[in-house]
Write a structure and sequence with these properties.
about 210 residues; alpha+beta; seven-stranded mixed β-sheet; 4 helices; binds zinc ion
Length: about 210
């Protein structure tokens, strides 16, 4: 599997002017989709918060993988979709148009920098959104460590992301495709209290998480 290692420090960079006023993705109810997943070698400390507070920055609840758009797009081109939707980070959940937002799951590995624990999840929440003018985006939700409840470092299974996102965009684009076969995931049962998708209402096909609605 092709896993991408994310560097968490860059996820706090704010490139959206509209998002710049909210510092903590963990407490913003509209914060779905604001986390950044571009983490490939960008330097720390460019964010508006500055790097000189001395406090560790909170880890993000979700990530975007704009850099995987080209691979999603090539699947869409192969399928004959036209026009090809464009990835846009600047739209938020409330701007999504029907039939989105759509909740499904991808596969990822995680590790905890607090206690060193590693885990694999076959049910990592993802929210895919469609926007006007053939734009879309997707947020993948982080998970907490079972040992110490710190948010993990995610290594996304990129192919699972590309498959899910491309499939959904084909469906929305009217491409006739067969439903992919259900894949049995050989991973432990989903633990809602450790899943940021559950906490933010993005992990049960758009239904509220039973753990958080008790
Ligand atoms: Zn831990
Ligand atoms: Zn849940
Ligand atoms: Zn969940």
């Amino acid at each position: 599997m092709n896993f991408r290692i994310l560097r968490f420090q860059v996820h706090h960079l704010r490139t959206m002017s509209t998002a710049a006023t909210t510092k903590n993705t963990n407490t913003d109810p509209n914060g779905k989709g604001k986390g950044k997943g571009k983490g490939q070698g960008k330097p720390k400390g460019k964010g508006k918060d500055g790097a000189n507070s001395g406090k560790p920055r909170p880890r993000p609840s979700s990530f975007m993988f704009a850099e995987l758009h080209q691979r999603v797009a090539s699947e869409l081109i192969t399928a004959g979709l036209s026009p090809i939707p464009e990835f846009s980070k600047t739209f938020r959940n409330h701007e999504a148009i029907r039939p989105s937002p759509y909740n499904t799951s991808v596969v990822a590995k995680f590790r905890c920098t607090g206690c060193g624990k590693r885990w694999v999840s076959g049910r990592v929440a993802i929210c895919i959104r469609k926007f006007p003018e053939d734009k879309y985006n997707a947020s993948v939700y982080n998970q907490k460590c079972k040992g110490c409840e710190k948010l993990g470092i995610m290594e996304l299974d990129e192919q699972s992301y590309i498959d899910r996102v491309a499939y959904r965009l084909k469906v929305w684009g009217g491409i006739k495709i067969h439903t992919p076969p259900y894949e049995e995931k050989n991973t432990p049962p989903h633990e809602c209290h450790l899943c940021e998708g559950c906490r933010l209402g993005e992990c049960h096909g758009g239904q509220p998480c039973p753990f958080y609605t008790k």
